[in-house]
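Good morning C.,

I know you're traveling, so I'll keep this short. The sequence:
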Amino acid sequence: MRVMIFFLVFLSGLASAQESLSGSVQRDMLISEYLPNIPGHKLTAVEVELPPMVQIGSHRHEGFVFVYVLEGRVRSQLDNQEVVEYKEGDSWIEQPGSTHSLTHNPSKTSQARLLAVFIANEGARLTTSGVIEEK
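The C-alpha cells, ready to paste straight into the viewer:
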C-alpha cells in the first residue's frame, strides 16, 4: 500500500511546464521492482514513445539510466556535449544528475520508441518531467 501511495505521489509530481511542449510523448511503466542485492534501490523499466518531430526539453534523473532504441531514430544530448543520433538497436547510459538537454525524434513520418531502465534509490525522482503511466 505504501508503494502505491508513493507511486501516485511520484506521478503527480512529475508533470511540469516542459510537458506542455512534449504532451504527445507516451511513457508506460513496464516494471518496477526492489533489488534485493542492492538494499534501498529499485529497478524501473519504462517504454517511451516519441511521435514524429517531437522534442523533449531539458530534464534530469536521480538514478542511473540505460536507454535502448527499440524503433526509429533519436537525437540526444547530455550535459551540453555533442548531439548524437541513435538508431534502432543503439543504446546509451545517463549518469545520475546529468542534464539530458535534448531528446528529439527527427523523423517527419515515423515514431521512435525507447526502453529506459532506471536504477535508483527507493523514493528517488526518476525524471524531472513527463508522466509515466502504469500498464
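Safe travels,
E.
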